[in-house]
Amino acid sequence: MKYTKEIKAGLIALLAIVGFVILFQFMKGKSFFTSDNIYYAKFDNVDGLEQSNPVSINGLKVGQVDKILPQTAKDGTIYFVVKVLVDKGFNFSKNSTVEIFEPGIMSGKQARIHLVYDKAPFAKDGDTLRGTFQSSLMASLSSQVGPVKDQVQSVLMKLDSTVAATNKIVDEQNRREIKILLANLNQTVASFKNTSDQTNRLLAS
Q1: pTM higher than 0.70
Q2: What confidence tens digit (pLDDT) does each residue in 44-61 have?
Q3: What 3 state SS string does the chain have?
């Protein structure tokens, strides 16, 4: 009887562990009840892409990112091999690409199969597809703002130079006018002195 209780306890513990593993895998987006094809794609940059991020086809989630494997080429260049899982119910050309993109400003990076409709054979489990990268909206805005910023700075520098040159011209003109005013004032004072001297001589006479 005691032996039977130990077996029951062991079975309960085993079922609890299996249930925990299934629940953990389900929370990560994996399922033990569906089979997926594995595809690989090579990228120079996986900015923001993470394991378990969704993979979609035409907006429908059909799989997920399974692994991101960093690799080093012979020349020392670092690149990344992304392993994606896609539902076996989807067949597409081997010339299709795996694209990393950002669906919105507030959402993280995802991967999608960019379909190519041609006469090439279907991609098979384990095939390597070409990887492409779509810049995020913020990166695009930054790249567009950069040249505008440079142009504004150039205009401001030219404007500053123009204002400085104008100030210099105004200063020189003011100096000339002040010199003329002082010269006229000197002439007026001299004339007044002559008149005063003549008046004094007349009064003395």
Answers
A1: no
A2: 999 889 999 999 999 999
A3: CHHHHHHHHHHHHHHHHHHHHHHHHHHCCCCCCCCEEEEEEEECCCCCCCCCCEEEECCEEEEEEEEEEEEECCCCCEEEEEEEEEECCCCCECCCEEEEECCCCCCCCEEEEECCCCCCCECCCCCEEEEEECCCHHHHHHHHHHHHHHHHHHHHHHHHHHHHHHHHHHHHHHHHHHHHHHHHHHHHHHHHHHHHHHHHHHHHC
